[in-house]
What does this fold into?
Amino acid sequence: MNTQARFVFLASFLLFIPRPGLRAESGRPIPRVERTGSQYRFLVDGQPFLMLGGQAHNSSASTARDLEAFWKSLVGIHGNTAEVPLYWELIEPEPGRFDFHLVDEIIAGARRNGLRLVFLWFATWKNGVMDYTPEWVKRDRAKYKHVVGALGEEMWIISPLCQAARDADAHAFAAVMQHIRSIDESDRTVIMVQVENETGLAGTDRDYSEEATRLYSGAVPAELMAHLGKTRDSLSASLKAAWAGSNYRASGTWTEVFGDLAPEAFSAWHVARYVDAVAAAGKQAYPLPFYVNNWLVEGGEVRAGNWPSGGPTVHVLDIWKAAAAHIDVLAPDIYYPKFFDVAVQYTRPDNPLFVPETNSVPYFAANALLTFAYFNGFGFSPFGIDSFVENGTVTPAAAEFEDLYRVLRPLLPLIARYQYTGKLHALLQGIAQGEDWAYAVRLSNQLAASVEFTGKYDPEKERGRGLIIELGPDDFVVAGARFKVNFRELEGPPRDAKFLTLEEGTFEGERWVPSRRLNGDELHVELPEQSKILRARLRQ
Ligand code: DGJ
It folds into this structure.
């Protein structure tokens, strides 16, 4: 072969080497989290995607049969994304022997039901302990070292300093990602993966083993100090306060730099480094977006260890950002009524909001609107929804999720397009002043929407909720249930704006498909008990 022929041969060969991140044969680009300044979009098939999710109970995915109720429930409430665990203990029952039949069956189940899939890798950590590690890890305490508690007791947690465990977990996770790639690269059913579950050390503020104590008495790594130095103005309030206590020392031991926050900061650094190594191995095999979920700092709890110490709590989000570059999103599991306050903490220029777990009681459903329409988040998912549908019927407990997801589903492309524009408004009873029954949304200098909730406020039950999308200065989509809207003119005599048209309907993509024209006695923007979508065009 002459030089030119050799070059052509080599070039054509190189063109066909599959590279991560490139389009698969089907042409569907790999899902990714795209950042533009401080705005985020989760792209699936190249388009912004919002996850109307549901998570299966912890033990629902050890047989495909047990998942049937979950699929029916999620489809029954009009969800589009299933969150389903994968268990290290079942995937690698003996070191190096992998069994992927569950991965295959779960992907097939999601496809059969027209759902996208988020896998949850339950491995070294699950709720701050090591229950999902394989037997061979649990038995070999000499090799797979445990955290030592403050009194010298062995704890039921793998030490974040244990390299053998980290490497074993990373090896298994990479094998799982490689397998997913091999069967799903052209379909992209799997769109995101949770690495571990609620990481951190449950029951102790740090590892008190000899090795950990030696490191704890040493200097905070320069890499972490450099990150904190660069991001000092935007650090979370608790980390900033802790560091301010040392007058922003640029170096020193953990206690010298972080004072009382030192044990949690130390644990966060080491847990995040461990998780990042696992994630890095997974990304190498198949670079889907990854996230970690978090057990929140609960009201009334004062000391790390009451919540798993070292998980990405609001105290240490910045340490996770410094330590875990292979994790795309730090995500809160929000089970408390103060959904809004937590969402504020996790929505940052360096982190978009994704709520992978939330309470499945009716009152929480409305928080999907906050997630998408207020916080510009891209995912929302109630936990443990397997019995939302029974004998083919949506249960009363699930009716609120079903009603809201039904009305949101056709609106998702539009909502995604209007995120970050200021033209998308979430309306929630019980968000502004707790028991609010009315409030106004300013739409322009000329116009405000006066919102009045029509149902009784009861934090135990469903509530008035919906959204307004400003398609134009005189063109509005209003959707949801249990409220009325009056469009008030802000200039001239105090009066309501006049309608050109008011229609019920739905959207196909971004195209409005009207059904009923409202006029005469029905010329009111009134959203009843069952959600609907209205479009109001006003005379300017
Ligand atoms: C949070 C965990 O991440 C879930 O797996 C599950 O254990 C729930 N808590 C239970 O409320």
Q: What stands out?
A: The pocket of DGJ is lined by residues 58, 127, 197-198, 293, 333, 357, 383 (CB under 6 Å). The first helix runs from residue 3 to 15. The first strand starts at residue 32 and ends at 36. Confidence is low (pLDDT under 50) at residues 1-22.
